[in-house]
Amino acid sequence: MDYDLYVVIDEDYRPGLDLAQLTHAVAENGASVIQLRCKHSCDQRFYDLALSLRQVTLCYRLPLIINDRLDIALAVDADGVHLGQEDLPASVARRILGEGKIIGVSAATPEEARLAAEAGASYLGVGAIFATGTKSDAGDPIGPEAISAIRPVCSLPLVGIGGIALANAASVIRAGGDGVAIVSAIMGSDDPASATAALLRTVKAAKSELLVR
Q: Helix %, strand %, coil % for the chain, to 5?
């Protein structure tokens, strides 16, 4: 499972944007995981979007993760679900989804990471690393050092999220992250395809630097 560039497609970020077309653009330019987040959409809208993105991700053989909603993930046969600390427990989601699906869990501390791993999480979304305006309940930024604190006590893949952009993505990898989750740096770009490619180059360069040290 490649978590290098985890792209979050957020329905609320740019209303009216063709999200299937955006998903095509990022998939063609190096996205390794796609997550669909629809915090304020009705169930029908969420389902329709998930189905359209599922068709795109199948074409590119990319995993589709659904934010929060286990029912939507099941309805479109997504590859998995991402859960926050106040969502359905990961252990329950694992029991429903089975061992073959991906379960991501948000974590900000070593203790949250440990509990998520014990509950059956596949990876952790660690953040908010930097200040972000794309998620109202993200809390205060915890910095890349949070990843450094979690890394020694958790062997799961760690994906940094929250305010990550081209200028700071490498710091997440240097701190021990396996990848970065991106919202605004791609969705807010006038050229999402180029933004995706540039972010992927930055992540891979940071990983290469670590290998030669």
A: 45, 15, 40
